[in-house]
Amino acid sequence: MKFAFLMGTAGSGKSTLVLSLSERISSPEVSVATLNLDPGVRWLPYSPDVDIRDYVDYDKLVEDYKLGPNGALIASVDASVNHIQEMKGEMERIGADYVLVDTPGQMELFAYRSAGRGIARSLSDGNYCTVFLADSIFLNRPSDFVSVLLLSCSVQARFYAPQINCISKCDLLTRELYERGRLWIEDPEYLKDDFLSEQVDLQIEFSERVLDALIEMGVLGEFIFTSSDTGEGLDDLYAQIQRIHSGGEDQ
Ligand SMILES: Nc1nc2c(ncn2[C@@H]2O[C@H](COP(=O)(O)OP(=O)(O)OP(=O)(O)O)[C@@H](O)[C@H]2O)c(=O)[nH]1
Ligand SMILES: [Mg+2]
C-alpha cells in the first residue's frame, strides 16, 4: 500500500481533493482507500474507508477534560497514536494500492506535533509521500505566496518525506493571477521582483535573504495547479505520486 498524506492550510481543499483524486485514480486495475485522520471534522465530502472518529471521541474529550476546541483537537491527535495498529489492521484488510489520507484542518496539529509524523511512518511502514496544498488565495500577493512557501518548507522539514506541492482551488483564480502565479513558479526572478517591490525599506534585506534561500532549496518550480472542481492538475498529481512510489524515493 502506498500512502499520500494530504496536508495544507485550513480550508485549502484537502478533504475535497481526497474525494476527487480517489475518483480520478480508481480504476479496475488500481484500488484506492481513504483514511480520515481529522478527529474533529463534522462532515466530509466522502465516506472514509477508515476513520479516526471511530476510535477517538472528540466530543467526549471536550466533556471529560473540559477542554476548549483546540485543546480537544490536540488531545485527539495525540490519542490517535494509540490506535495506529487497529487502523493499520483495517487498511490491511482493505488492501488498496493507494491510500489517500485526510489530515486535520489546523495543519500544525498534524504537521508540527510528533504524533503526526509518528502516525504517518507507522501506518505506512514508511511508504508514504506528503502532498502540501497551498490555497490559491495565497497567490493574491507576493508576500502571501512567500509565506506559504515557508509553510511548505516547514512540512518538508518535519516529515522529511518526498513532497508534492499544489496550488489548490486554482479554478478560483482570475486569468491574471493564474498567469502571474505560473510565471512566479517558472521563473523565481519574477517572484523576487514583485516580492521586493511590495516590501518597505527595513524588510527588504531580510525578505530577500528568505526568498533567496527558498529559491536555492528549489521549492519553486514544483507546484502543480489543481482543482477538484474542474479536475485540472489531478492527472499530474497522480503521476507525481506514482513517480515517487515507483522511483525508490520512499521513506
Ligand atoms: N472552487 C473550488 N472550491 C473548492 C475546491 N476544493 C474545495 N473547495 C471548497 O473549499 C471549501 C473547503 O474545502 P475542504 O475540502 O473542506 O477543505 P479542507 O482543507 O479539507 O478544510 P479543513 O479540513 O477544514 O481545513 C469547501 O467549501 C469546498 O467545497 C476546488 O478545487 N475549487
Ligand atoms: Mg478537511
CATH architecture: 3-Layer(aba) Sandwich
- What is the number of E strands? 7
CATH topology: Rossmann fold
What count of structural domains? 1
End-to-end separation in angstroms reads: 13 Å
Biggest sheet: strands, sense, closure? Answer: 7 strands, parallel
Mean pLDDT across every amino acid position: 92
Shape: globular
Beta-strand residue percentage: 5-15%
What is the N-to-C succession of helices and strands? EHEEHHHEHHEHEHHHEH
Low-confidence stretches: none
Order of the strands making up the biggest sheet: 3-2-4-1-5-6-7
Discrete helix count: 11
The residue fraction in helices comes out at 40-55%
- Can you tell me the CATH class? Alpha Beta
Bound molecules: guanosine-5'-triphosphate, magnesium ion
* Helix-strand category: alpha/beta
Radius of gyration from the CA trace? Answer: 19 Å
State the CATH superfamily name.
Answer: P-loop containing nucleotide triphosphate hydrolases
